[in-house]
Design goal:
Number of helices: 16
Radius of gyration: 28 Å
Number of strands: 32
Strand order of the largest sheet: 8-9-7-11-12-13-15
Structural class: alpha/beta
Shape: globular
Helix content: 10-25%
């Protein structure tokens, strides 16, 4: 039990650490502080593929599988397995990186490489022309190009998936602040306006209460550990003893005076260095385990430093995969992942994240710095098994830059999940600097969980803020410790209840009552299995209407994940109103019961069972008149991840692609709120036009549609307008074929 408590306490460390540094106040040698904005971009690497196997194999076995898969008529030349030289090389692996050479032959250096496969050992500039005209060369290239490489590899029964290699670029931009102007949110009135940053000032933080008047900011204490009362736990002997913490970042200097328990430093990049050339990794490690000056939360924890970014802030998916495998081998307890992005479809990366958490690794990641828009979460922090955290200041205000929920990749199938998981301080946090001293950083905080099923009990809710902004609220370290002293593994739900009347926490649900004939309201609930990595929902979840509270007037349909792995699953709850309540107004209540069963723990034979209750409360009103009902077409909106689509605003050349999906409650939130203020009722259509009754609605809104319209839809829509008087309102995006041909996206790889 004591070991569990110590591990759990260390998880909280990452709530403060900036694993993804979004905005930073760094003290420069000149005495000025500066804001450091961090941006992530991702792109495919030309002709490189990650081949993922169904199991772990030695390098010789992996090579044999690939050669077998590519053994077409002229052999497997044209392909090369890229060697990897790092700490994981000696161990079995579940992937390889391969390069397809055929498309590179216009580049002279690849002609030399290809010559190896043609047994031409004396290729030079003099006989290069001879090779180009050689029949064997021409036939080989044409033969290679005639084979679909991905299809050829994926046919092999031992190969799980083939995906393109990705490069991740992290850009750090230091912007100097005026002297003595060091705190985000504080207006330095005596300085020229042009010296101020766009994100500073009164709108840098989002107020959590109703009152917006100015108030004096509290002075920032010297130690963040004091604010969260870490000393209370230290006095009880809880300092992270025996906890293995992995920091995936830019490395750590050798013999840094702040660290006493650096167990291992490993390099996973193409650079031959273990040191931190930028200072970011040093700061992160300092907040975790510094033993002097700017103290870390777990000074007795064992640090494992993984250098996964170069000094140019470049990394590859394959570097992370190798490092992840090594972290599993080293039985890491807590892993801080200093990366985030908008694309959850990088399958090797996401699969490995699942494998990490399934092996008991607590993974923490920043929720992102793309706020204040809703639906701007970063991956992997938006996954159910990863703890994603947003930032607040010392006035308990949500950081304007902190990304908001809901998760967007479930939207096409209903609605997103609650995220972030929790919020904590992200302003002027002190940590170790690269030169041995301390510096202050600000930005999206990264937090960590205690246990998956208990996170909602470890935080204090912030008033006046939506659950898609604050998650379960603000970290309360000592309260978490007290809870853990009596904690017993069980299953829980996130959110733990559904109250469609509670504002602002249940925004947007609380902004519009439900009524008969409306499109069902969908709430996506995460099931957290604290009993084990694998479990299942036994039987079917049951709706229990409270007859004395009109629960029978609600129609509840539930879909759910049969398997809970790793540690989690979902309940998708569809809420609609029965015809009996078409003219009724009031509050309807009931609850849903869910029973989770988990496999026996090591050394036991007892199957663990936990029954959870999900209270549900909704306000029903009489069906509004047709003139007040508007239908929003979500079915044809841009979906996440969208692919390579240019933004509506072509002037945004530094970020030309639209990475976020469209939804009335995310990037079109302002439109939704405006319509509600005008007493219109807005319903969201997630199905084709053939699935709604036009006689119920005054208008159909087509806002920036991207997906195609089927012939049956166009026929029905014309009939709805002509025969049933449906109004059609179209907010059209630009479409110009000549402009589209000129809009080209390049990076250093593609």
């Amino acid at each position: 039990m004591r070991t569990f408590i110590i591990v759990s306490m260390v998880f909280f460390i990452f709530k403060i650490k900036l694993a993804r540094l979004d905005e930073v106040n760094a003290c420069s040698p000149s005495g000025y502080e500066s804001e450091l904005k961090t941006e992530f971009s991702s792109s495919f690497v030309e002709n490189e593929y990650i081949v993922t196997f169904n199991g772990y194999h030695a390098s010789k076995v992996r090579r044999k599988i690939i050669e077998d898969a590519l053994s077409y008529s002229n052999g497997s030349f044209g392909w090369r397995i890229i060697g990897r030289n790092n700490a994981a090389t000696m161990y079995p692996s579940d992937f390889d990186v391969v390069m397809h050479l055929a498309d590179k032959f216009l580049n002279k250096k690849w002609l030399f490489v290809f010559a190896e496969y043609l047994t031409i050992s004396t290729l030079n500039d003099r006989n290069l022309y001879t090779l180009l005209s050689d029949d064997l060369f021409s036939e080989a290239v044409e033969d290679i190009k005639g084979v679909n490489p991905v299809e050829q590899l994926t046919r092999h029964p031992d190969i799980k998936r083939v995906t393109k290699q990705r490069l991740v670029q992290r850009t750090l931009k230091y912007i100097p602040l005026p002297e003595n102007c060091t705190s985000p949110g504080v207006d330095c009135e005596s300085k020229p306006k042009q010296r101020r940053l766009d994100f500073l000032g009164t709108d840098f933080w989002h107020a959590t209460g109703r009152h917006t008047s100015r108030k004096l900011l509290k002075s920032v204490p010297r130690q963040i550990t004091s604010i969260l009362q870490a000393e209370l736990l230290w006095n009880l002997g809880i300092k992270g003893e025996g906890v293995r913490v992995a920091v995936f970042d830019t490395g750590l200097p050798r013999d840094h005076p702040h660290f006493k328990r650096v167990k291992e430093r490993t390099n996973w990049t193409s650079e031959k260095s273990l040191n931190d050339g930028l200072g970011h990794g040093t700061f992160v490690a300092g907040v975790i385990a510094s033993t002097k000056e700017c103290l870390g939360f777990a000074p007795h924890s064992d640090l494992h430093i993984f250098r996964v970014f170069t000094n140019n802030q470049v990394s590859y998916t394959s570097w992370f995969l190798d490092a992840f495998n090594y972290a599993i081998l080293k039985k890491i307890h807590v892993l801080n992942l200093s990366i985030g992005g908008p694309d959850f479809m990088d399958h090797p990366f996401i699969d490995k994240v699942w494998e990490l958490t399934a092996n008991g690794v607590i993974l923490v990641s920043a929720i992102g710095n793309d706020g204040p828009l809703y639906g701007t979460l970063n991956n992997p922090a938006d996954q159910m098994d990863v703890i994603g955290v947003g930032g607040i200041n010392f006035e308990d205000q949500i950081a304007r830059f902190s990304s908001r929920g809901m998760t967007t990749w479930e939207l096409p199938n209903g609605y997103g999940r609650l995220k972030p998981d929790i919020v904590t301080y992200g302003s002027t946090v002190r940590g170790s600097s690269i030169n041995g001293g301390c510096r202050s950083l600000s930005g999206t905080s990264v937090a960590s969980p205690v246990v998956a099923g208990a996170i909602s009990l470890l935080a204090r809710r912030l008033p006046g803020v939506s659950m898609f902004e604050q998650g379960h609220g603000k970290l309360d370290l000592y309260r978490a410790y007290q809870y853990l002293m009596s904690y017993k593994p069980h299953a829980s739900l996130s959110p733990s209840y559904i109250d469609l009347t509670e504002c602002a926490f249940m925004w947007p649900y609380c902004t519009q009552p439900i009524y008969y004939s409306s499109v069902p309201t969908i709430v996506n609930v995460t099931v957290l299995n604290g009993m084990g990595v694998s479990g299942k929902i036994v039987k079917e979840p049951i709706w229990h209407p409270y007859l004395l509270h009109y629960g029978h007037l609600l129609n509840i349909e539930i879909s759910y994940s049969d398997l809970l792995w790793p540690w989690s699953g979902f309940l998708a709850i569809s809420i609609s109103v029965s015809e009996e309540a078409a003219d009724w107004e009031g509050i309807a209540q009931g609850h849903i019961s869910v029973t989770v069963e988990s496999s026996p723990e090591d050394g036991t034979t007892e199957i663990l069972t936990s029954t959870i209750t999900l209270p549900l409360r909704a306000k029903i009103i009489p069906t509004p008149p047709r003139s007040k009902r508007i239908l929003w077409d979500q079915y044809h909106n841009l979906r996440y991840p969208p692919g390579y689509f240019p933004r509506d605003n072509l002037r945004m050349k530094n970020d030309p692609l639209d990475w976020n999906g469209d939804h009335i409650h995310t990037n079109f939130k302002d439109m939704y709120q405006f319509l509600r203020l005008k007493d219109y009722f807005v319903e969201v259509l997630g199905h084709p036009f053939t699935c709604f009754n036009a006689e119920n609605y005054a208008a159909l809104l087509l806002v920036d549609p991207e997906e195609e319209f089927f012939p049956e839809e166009m026929t029905k829509l014309r009939k709805d307008v002509e025969d049933f008087g449906l109004s059609l309102i179209v907010f059209a995006d630009w479409y110009n074929t000549s402009v589209m041909k000129k809009v080209q996206f390049y990076d250093e790889n593609t």
